[in-house]
TrEMBL record:
This is GNAT family N-acetyltransferase. InterPro entries: GNAT_dom (IPR000182), N-acetyltransferase (IPR051531). Residues 1-20 are annotated as: Disordered. Residues 25-181 form the N-acetyltransferase domain.
Length: 191
C-alpha cells in the first residue's frame, strides 16, 4: 500500500501541512474547526474508554495544541476521512511527548467504523510518512492495559513492547517500532 502526500491549505508558518491518502482514506491535519466533530467522536463510551471524553472547551484547547504541534514540529494528529464520501470517521497521526522525548502514533475511530481495517490502514500511512518524509528513527504507541483492539493493530504493524509506563495517570504498555523494522515489514507485506 502506498500513501501519497499533498500539500494542504492554510499552511502554518514554516511548515507543510500534508494530506496523506490511501486507496480508502484521506488524512488531513486537525484544526479548531473540528471541535464539534471531536466532541461527538469522543462521546461514545466505548470509543472514549481509553482516550477519554471531551467538553467543547477541552476539545478546543486540545485542537489548538494539535495545531501548534503542526506549526512547531511539522506533524500532529489528523482527521481520517473516507475518500468515497468525505465522512470523518476517526483520527490518527503523530504526537510529540516532550517529557518522554518520543514521537507517538495514535488512532481512534468511531464505533460504526470498527472492524474494517481503517486503523491499520491509516496508521500504516502515518508510519510511512513519519519514517520516510520526516526521518523519525523510532515511533512509539502508548496503549492502555485492556485495549486489546489497539494492541492487535500495533502488533499487526510490527510494534513490540518497549516498557510499562503510566501516561496521564493510567497504566499502559509502550510499544515501539524502528524505521528499519517498519521498512522490513513493508517489504514482506503483500501489496
Amino acid at each position: 500500500m502506498e500513501a501519497t502526500t499533498d500539500s494542504g491549505r492554510d499552511l502554518p508558518p514554516g511548515g507543510l501541512r500534508p494530506v496523506l491518502t490511501t486507496p480508502r482514506l484521506r488524512l488531513r491535519p486537525l484544526s479548531e474547526a473540528d471541535t464539534d466533530w471531536w466532541v461527538r467522536l469522543h462521546t461514545d463510551d466505548q470509543v472514549n474508554q481509553f482516550v477519554g471524553a471531551y467538553t467543547h472547551r477541552q476539545a478546543a484547547v486540545r485542537l489548538r495544541d494539535i495545531r501548534q504541534q503542526w506549526v512547531q514540529r511539522g506533524h500532529g494528529l489528523c482527521a481520517v476521512e473516507l475518500t468515497s464520501t468525505g465522512e470523518a470517521i476517526g483520527r490518527s497521526g503523530l504526537n510529540w511527548w516532550e517529557t518522554l522525548g518520543e514521537t507517538e502514533i495514535g488512532w481512534t475511530f468511531a464505533r460504526a467504523h470498527w472492524g474494517n481495517g481503517y486503523a491499520t490502514e491509516a496508521a500504516r500511512a502515518v508510519l510511512a510518512w513519519g519514517f520516510g518524509a520526516l526521518g523519525i528513527g523510532q515511533i512509539t504507541a502508548m496503549i492502555h492495559h485492556g485495549n486489546t483492539a489497539s494492541t492487535t493493530v500495533a502488533r499487526r504493524l510490527g510494534f513490540t513492547p518497549l516498557r510499562e509506563d503510566s501516561v496521564l495517570g493510567r497504566s499502559c504498555t509502550v510499544y515501539a517500532l524502528s524505521s528499519d523494522d517498519f521498512a522490513a515489514s513493508e517489504d514482506r507485506t503483500p501489496q
